[in-house]
Write a structure and sequence with these properties.
The structure holds two protein chains of two kinds. Chain A is mostly helical. Helix content of chain A is 80%, strand content 0%. The chains are: A mainly alpha, B mainly alpha.
Chain lengths: 93, 195
């Protein structure tokens, strides 16, 4: 019986990575939660995958913070700005 | 009560906010021409809607909220141009590039060509922000349009689940399936170009 139970909880890498994504959007069932934990415990590739996704999203949110704090990676040049200024002026008048 | 609201100063918008707005749009869409247009449209919409500004936020926050709408609008159009059936039958980018073994004793396990490699974290830290953004968007660009739009809405614009589903006319389970496939592809693309 225990073997059957384990068998029903053991999941593939495909399923485990899917559940990692599902978890971000909706609640997982207890069985799914245990399935992920068990899988990540014994599968270093999925652990690595999971960590790398976190590295990527941390990197993106770090950039977002910089942008909110007015770090300019991209700027408009003088002629683009005077064009915009002109457009605004015309609209006001 | 006149004078209570912070006044708007349209003549100063270009000088005070255009770089900020452009930079914001570029970090999401990475398309110079499109982003320049969106900044211009933002200013024009703002001018027409000046009476709606209640002074509850700063001028910049208000302009950013208008720009955000325009960005989401752009992404939604991009996403909706792709049929609904696409989600159900969505395959990984190319045939034969299945990240997991489709058959055999190792069915469902990482296929050797797609399994995540060990990353050199030091190299990651050294990369310039501009370079990372270039690679990030080059990888987004390779996703199917619908995946790309939804990836940006979620991972960069950080919109809530309900809003993303509504904007793209999809269910929550469509959403995580799309995000899952997008992330699998993005991770692999970043690994090839960033590490």
């Amino acid at each position: 019986m225990l073997q059957n139970m384990l068998k029903s909880i053991m999941i593939s890498c495909e399923k485990a990575t899917e559940l990692v994504a599902k978890k971000e959007v909706t609640k997982l069932s207890i069985k799914e939660k245990i399935g992920i934990k068990l899988h990540l415990f014994h599968c270093y590739l999925c652990r690595r995958y999971y960590n790398q996704l976190q590295i990527i999203s941390n990197h993106i949110s770090k950039l977002n913070k910089k942008i909110k704090g007015s770090t300019f990676f991209f700027t408009l040049n003088t002629s683009q700005k005077s064009k915009l200024q002109e457009v605004i002026k015309n609209k006001i008048n | 009560m006149p004078g209570r609201n912070a006044p708007l100063n349209p003549e100063g918008w270009v000088e005070n906010h255009s770089d900020y707005l452009y930079n914001y749009a570029m970090s999401r869409l990475y398309n110079a021409e499109l982003c320049e247009d969106l900044v211009q449209e933002t200013f024009l919409s703002a001018l027409s809607g000046m009476d709606k500004f209640q002074g509850k936020s700063t001028e910049r926050t208000w302009l950013v909220s208008i720009l955000k709408h325009k960005i989401i609008d752009h992404l939604r159009k991009k996403s909706r141009a792709q049929q609904q059936e696409f989600i159900e039958h969505a395959d990984y980018a190319k045939k034969g590039s299945q990240p997991f073994n489709v058959e055999g004793a190792h069915k469902g396990m990482w296929s050797p060509d797609h399994a995540p490699h060990d990353w050199n974290i030091d190299a990651l830290k050294k990369i310039e922000d501009e370079e990372f953004m270039r690679i990030l968007h080059a990888c987004i660009e390779r996703l199917p349009d619908k995946f790309a739009a939804i990836f940006v809405m979620r991972m960069i614009e950080e919109l809530e689940t309900e809003l993303i589903c509504k904007e793209n006319n999809i269910t929550a389970s469509n959403l995580w399936v799309i995000l899952h496939r997008a992330k699998i592809q993005m991770r692999e693309c970043l690994e090839k170009n960033w590490i």
